[in-house]
Structure formats: structure tokens, C-alpha cells
Amino acid sequence: GENVEQHPSTLSVQEGDSAVIKCTYSDSASNYFPWYKQELGKRPQLIIDIRSNVGEKKDQRIAVTLNKTAKHFSLHITETQPEDSAVYFCAASRGHSSASKIIFGSGTRLSIRP
Amino acid sequence: NAGVTQTPKFRVLKTGQSMTLLCAQDMNHEYMYWYRQDPGMGLRLIHYSVGEGTTAKGEVPDGYNVSRLKKQNFLLGLESAAPSQTSVYFCASSYSRSRVGGVIGETQYFGPGTRLLVL
């Protein structure tokens, strides 16, 4: 079945440095790729998403890139801050057209060192 | 506008007991989902619904049943709880974005979660 692999599972970076989280997906029909941030004890919340007709999207310190040929997509966080510490999940979906669902990666625990 | 709410927040069950988790959303979303979250395994889809009166199985449906009698509510039932069902359960809802050429994807809004412990 479809799956999404996410790496690394844990990541520790110095405050101010950049963090990169990478995901690969298996379903070539996937066309929607959201990223969720989950703080400790809280619900997952969407931070950015990208659709298959776009190669890159940026929102302030957060950017996502998509390589459909290689079935890779990545989350980039620049100038990291303590509040960026959380678990990040990537996901892939075909969208509602096939009544399908979002497949989530296993998550990356990001820690920002002061 | 409360968004997505879940009840209860926390529950302890004994093996074999039954219970129902309630999810409610006030955003008029068509689609609703139930996930379980276990350490190191991300979010796994249990069941989902694309509209009132319809449900479908997700990745890990065994041991669970669902109902969507009203558009705003999605119920998850455990008929005979097992320790393997100890987890954090999240409900989510979404609307569909559509454009010429077909639907292109959705954004999911999550509830606060229900922590379930089965002894």
C-alpha cells in the first residue's frame, strides 16, 4: 500500500541554524503534501502545504520543496527559534477525488538548542 | 466557532469494556476522520467519512466502528477494548477544495485528542 517515509526521526539544531526534514512517498498519484507541527500535548496543526503543480512554496521562515519525479518533498526552517521545537509530520494525499486519505510520515522530533 | 472538539479528554477502560468517543465540528465540513497516534508511528487512519451517512475503513480499522448520523458529528466506538488500543485518538475534519479539472486536495483540522488507557 501507499506509504510515506520521513527522515530523520530526531533532529537537534542550534538556535539560529536551519533545519531540514525530508520525506518520500510511494503513490505517484499523490498531489497534495501538507506539513503539520505538533507541540507537546497538543493537536497537530497545519503549517504549510504544497500542491503537485508547484515546486516550491515559502511562508516567512518556512519553505517546502517538491520533486515529483523523485517523489521527494522537504521542509526547510531557517533561523530556528526555541518555539520551533516540536514534532513535525509530513503527509501525502491524492485529495478527495478518489475518496482517499492522507498518509502521514512517522514524524521528526525537532529540538532547538539555545 | 469552536472548530473540532472531542469528548472525553481522557478515559481509563478495563479490557473488554466498551466506549464511544465523540467528535464534533462546527465548520460545516463534509469530511471527517479518526486517527490513532502511537509513539514512533505517526498518525494512522482508523476510519473516515466523506459525508453524512457514509463511512469507510482506513489503515487500522479492526476493533473499531464508526457512525456519521449527523454531518457535524463522527463517533468512534470500541465494542470490546483491548490493551493494544491504548493510544491517543485524534479526530479531524476537512473541506474539499475544487477547481476546474477536479479536486486537488484538502486541509485537515484536528481536535484536541482523547487519551485512552486500556488496562
Brief description of this entry?
The complex is a heterodimer of chains A (114) and B (119). Chain A has 114 residues and is mostly beta strands. Chain A has strands spanning 4-7, 10-14, 19-25, 32-38, 45-51, 56-59, 62-67, 72-77, 86-92, 103-104, 108-113.
Query: Given the helix and strand composition of chain B, which structural class is it?
Result: mainly beta
Helical fraction of chain B equals under 10%
CA radius of gyration of chain B is 14 Å
Tertiary shape of chain A: globular
Name the helicity range of chain A: under 10%
What is the percentage of strand-forming residues of chain B? over 45%
User: What is the CA-atom radius of gyration of chain A, in angstroms?
Assistant: 14 Å
**Could you tell me the mean pLDDT of chain A?**
91
Which class best fits the helix and strand makeup of chain A?
mainly beta
Mean pLDDT of chain B: 89
Tally of contiguous helical segments of chain A: 0
User: In total, how many beta strands of chain A?
Assistant: 11
What composes the largest sheet of chain B?
7 strands, mixed
| Regions with little confidence, pLDDT below 50 for 5+ residues of chain B | 99-105
- Which segments of chain A are poorly predicted (pLDDT under 50) over 5 or more consecutive residues? none
Spell the H/E element sequence of chain A: EEEEEEEEEEE
N-C termini distance of chain A: 41 Å
Distance between the termini of chain B: 36 Å
Oligomer: heterodimer
The shape of chain B, in one word, is: globular
